[in-house]
Amino acid sequence: MKKWLQFLVLITSITSTSALLASGGIGEGSEGRSSQMPPVMNAKWKAECSGCHMLYHPGLLPERSWKAVMAGLDKHFGESAGLDAATRDEITSFLVLNSADKSANRRSSRINQSIPTNSTPLRVSETRYFISKHDEISASTFKRKSVGSSANCIACHRGAEKGDFSESQVRIPR
Ligand code: HEC
Ligand code: HEC
User: What is the pLDDT of residues 90-105, one digit of tens each?
Assistant: First the structure.
């Protein structure tokens, strides 16, 4: 590479990195760890868990909850969502690896801390953390046609599937 070109590449990468840090794009919180859940992906998870509802980020529930959800797919909230053993095991591993008690981000830690150790919620929307963050939203708002239920995070949080629940991305539809 020519010397001037090398210099240009160096400067560009330095300025874009600092811009990203300054904008909070990486999400370093005051405690020195990421405040947002990191975007995660697994092809089987996306294929099998987004047919009936949005993809729930693994960082929203602890390991024991995901294991319970995945062990009960035959009777999943009134639906039959059973999978072959290999697919089920792969998705379970992915969910566990990125679960709220395995993830270092602040949001997941708070969700995890809000769940008593002797309880295994199957719903994010039943956790104390969720309830405290939505106590100003009325039941009728959650029942709006444009929302459906409190479980349909993506109606109000555009970035929900990527784990982005930041306040700047929230909009309650009419
Ligand atoms: C055949 C349809 C169907 C499939 C496939 C399905 N689900 Fe569900 N799931 C449901 C229904 C119905 C609900 C209840 C939704 C509600 O109350 O609004 C639900 C709710 C959930 C909830 C609770 C959400 C909350 O906080 O209230 C989780 C977590 C969940 N599903 C995970 C999964 C995972 C993981 C997969 C893939 C292995 C999956 N689902 C595949 C139908 C399905
Ligand atoms: C009817 C719209 C609506 C739905 C559905 C909804 N939320 Fe929210 N959510 C909000 C609003 C409004 C706030 C408050 C934003 C603020 O503090 O300004 C919020 C706040 C949050 C926060 C805290 C943000 C922060 O930084 O303080 C989290 C996390 C969150 N929601 C997650 C979820 C999850 C997970 C789901 C689905 C299981 C969900 N929400 C469903 C509207 C919604």
Answer: 999 999 999 999 998 9
Q: So where are the chain's domains? A: 41-169
Q: Which ligand is nearest to the CA of 96?
A: 1
| Residue 79 confidence (pLDDT) above 70 | yes
Contact 42, 117 (CB under 8 A): no
**Probe residue for ligand 2, chosen from 115, 128, 153, 162 as the CB with the greatest number of ligand atoms within 8 Å:** 153
**Span 110-165, pLDDT tens digits:** 999 999 999 999 999 999 999 999 999 999 999 999 999 999 999 999 999 999 99
Question: To test ligand 2's pocket by mutation, which of 35, 113, 138, 156 has the most ligand atoms within 8 angstroms of CB?
Answer: 156
Q: Which atom of ligand 2 is nearest to the CA of 35?
A: 26
Q: Identify whether the C-beta of residue 88 lies closer than 8 Å to the C-beta of residue 73.
A: yes
Q: How many CA atoms lie within 13 A of 44 on its CB side?
A: 13
- Tell me how far CA of residue 99 lies from CA of 38, 107, 174, in angstroms: 11, 12, 32
